[in-house]
Amino acid sequence: MGLGITTLTEKKKRRNHLVLIGIDKYENLSPLTFPVSDCQRFYSVLKNFYGFSDNDLIIKPLFNKDASVAFLFDEISYLGGKNEKGEARVKSDENLIIYFSGHGHFSNNEGYWIPFDAPDPLNCTPYVIKQTLISVSEVIKILSTIKAHHIVLIVDACFSESFTEMEVDMPQQSQIANAEDIPSRWVLTAGRHGLVPDPSPFANALVTILSQNQSNHISINLLGAQLTHAVRNANQPVPKSNLIIEPMCKSLVNTNKPGEFFFHRVVNQSQKSVGLDLKSLLNALRSGTNKHFDLLQTGRFKYL
């Protein structure tokens, strides 16, 4: 069997939830240029080609100042909670995709996401770092509370390989079913234990592969292999290093037969085009989304 190629005997329709986190501007660190637009391009591809809609955004996108340390931690924790009816916000027959793009940090064998308002970790004590950054172990702990069928974590940040070294707790189910019917937890990282550039060859490859995919479905495993191949071929060195950037795709569950998430294509490529012009993209995304975002912000504990 080829890498990531799985025969789907029957496609069960599951709702997909999406979380977008992108930080260009920081209060205390050098700014980045593309994280927010990379999130928006990814979202545009999902909408144009894979049947996603505004209703799949389980929380309002956390861009720049909306991704403060307190709000970012609260919103991620929110995903593992229950709604006012006492039901899980992400149910066991639903999927969850989390996309993070921004600065990352590595200290004392721990990886971190750097929120909008965090101090420069290079000037901080280990205690301050733990209080003001979002650690990989905290994210993994929260993911272990979410009872989704599939969870895919996409991390476009420096030192993102630290996520691949963790395991997520997940209810065990029969391994007899086909790959998509077995629950899974996966991570896609832009690089390894090092820096990654801005603009991101990982983000560009991700958008290109998903938009140009001609198959009815593509597994997370196959997507990861294609991402690694595309970024390697770009031959872009790791900043301040002679190494070549290399993404990773890894299951976060310790099992011999991990399940797989699939992106299911719902339109022909000729029917839609992905506008990569930022101004046009932003205008398109604003159309029809502002009302939904307002609902998420003002009635976020009631909309599910």
Write out key terms for the chains shown.
alpha/beta, disordered N terminus, 8 helices, 28% helix, Rossmann fold, 304 residues, three-stranded antiparallel beta sheet
Compact summary:
The chain is of the alpha/beta class. It has helices spanning 35-49, 69-79, 126-132, 136-143, 201-212, 220-234, 278-286, 290-298; strands at 16-22, 62-63, 95-101, 104-107, 110-113, 134-135, 150-156, 184-189, 217-219, 248-251, 262-264. The radius of gyration is 18 Å and the shape is globular.
Distance, first to last CA:
40 Å
How large is the count of helical segments?
A: 8
Structural class: alpha/beta
What does the main sheet amount to?
A: 6 strands, mixed
Overall form:
globular
User: What's the number of structural domains?
Assistant: 1
Q: Can you write the helix and strand succession as a string?
A: EHEHEEEHEHEEHEHEEHH
**What's the CATH topology name?**
Rossmann fold
Indicate the radius of gyration in whole angstroms.
18 Å
Parts with pLDDT < 50 across at least 5 consecutive residues: 1-9, 268-277, 298-304
- Please report which band the strand proportion falls in: under 5%, 5-15%, 15-25%, 25-35%, 35-45% or over 45%: 15-25%
Percentage of residues in helical conformation: 25-40%
Number of E-type strands: 11
